[in-house]
Structures are given as structure tokens and as C-alpha cells.
Amino acid sequence: MPTHSGNEPEDHKPEEVDTSAGYERKDIRISGVVVFITAMFVFVVVVAVVCFGVGKVLNARMNKEDGPNSKWTKTVDVRQLGNLPSSPQLQNKMAELTQDFPTPRLQTDDGNQDIADLHAREDILLGNYSWVDRSKGKVRIPIERAMELLAQRGLPVATAVDKAPLMVGDSNPTVTEPLTNGFARTGYEQEETQRADSGRAEARK
């Protein structure tokens, strides 16, 4: 059974601390701080070099797979836009950038503006005179004028054809006038028209 004698080595004796001064008498070791800062600096440099190398390798691999740049893979510097709010200037800048990409392009909204633009082009064609074929003298006339001429001259009458007698259960087809002309403005266009009318009314005031 081991026993402990009172004669212990001097290196195992607790160090006596002088607390009479009320503060620590020993200073911090400068060498430890220097070693820590140096190790941290080396670690940061190594990590930066590794990340840079990995980025280079990944970019080289992607460029190899994608092939050389063409006019359809133009790199756009979006920093030119800055932190602009949603405004006509920003929309015009985005329109300039998107012109570099082929159609069909992704729509920036739900398609309401595209439909409104289509109807605007149709209104221009339906409400104005324009050339169809200048060499042959063919002119497109406004739809209102076309309706007036049609009412004056009437529709061309087809030649009569011999009709076979109706079979049992058949009847002559009847044509009813449609309730609409097949064209209606979208809600988006109606809202834009209301905004324009209200703006003109306020301007008159």
C-alpha cells in the first residue's frame, strides 16, 4: 500500500504569490502575442491563396466547357446601373442591356405591356391610311371609311347554286349577329386609359 511522505520534491510545491501589492506583478509575454499574430497572418494568406487557386481552376473549367465568348454571351457590367430606384431611367437602361440578347426574351412583367403594345400597333393600322404595296397602288384605309364604303356598295353577291333538298331532320342554317366584335381591351389597358384621362383632367384644372 503506497504511502506519502512529507518529503515532496520542491517542483511540486505551489508557488507563493505575493498579493500585498494588490495587482499582478508579472507582465504578459510579448513573444506569445507575436507568435499568435504571425500564425494568424500566415493562415489568412494561405486561405486566400487556396481560394484564388480554386477560383482559377473552376473558371478555367467552365470556360473550357462553355467555349469561347460570342455575341450572344456578352458580359454586361451591371455596376453601371448603380443603386437606382424603379424609374424610367432604370427601365431604359435595362432595355438597352437586354437588346444584346436574342429573342425570345423573358418578360419583365406578366405580359400586359406586350398586349397593350400589340393593340396600339393594331390601332395604328386600323385607324390610318398606309401603303400595302406602293408599286401596285394598294392602300390600307381606316376601318371606319371601309365600313362606310361597304355600307354604300354592299357585299359582293355569290352566284346562286343549286341546293339539294333537305334531308329528314335537317334545317336551313341561320346566322345570328355576334354580341361583340371579338375585340376587347384588357384590364391593364383600361386602367392605363383611366390614368391618362384623370391626368388630362387634372392638367386642365
Outline the fold blueprint.
Layout: H1 30-66, H2 88-98, H3 112-127, E1 130-133, E2 138-140, H4 143-153, H5 187-204
Antiparallel strand pairs: 1-2
Question: What would your notes on this structure say?
Answer:
This protein is mostly helical and 205 residues long. Among the domains are: 37 residues; 43 residues, no CATH class. 45% of the residues lie in helices and 3% in strands. The chain contains 5 helices and 2 strands, in the order αααββαα. The protein has a two-stranded antiparallel sheet. A hairpin with a 4-residue loop joins strand 1 and strand 2. The radius of gyration is 43 Å and the shape is elongated. The model has no long low-confidence stretch (mean pLDDT 76).
Fill in the keyword field for this structure:
5 helices; 45% helix; 205 residues; mainly alpha
Which spans have pLDDT < 50 for at least 5 consecutive residues? none
Strand order of the largest sheet: 1-2
Strand-residue proportion: under 5%
CA-CA gap between termini? 112 Å
Which structural class is indicated by helix and strand composition? mainly alpha
Helicity range of the residues? 40-55%
Which sequence of SSEs, written as H and E, runs from N to C?
HHHEEHH
Q: What is the alpha-carbon Rg in Å?
A: 43 Å
Number of strands: 2
SS summary, helix count: 5
Summed over residues and divided by their number, the pLDDT gives a mean of: 76
Largest sheet: 2 strands, antiparallel
Oligomer: single chain
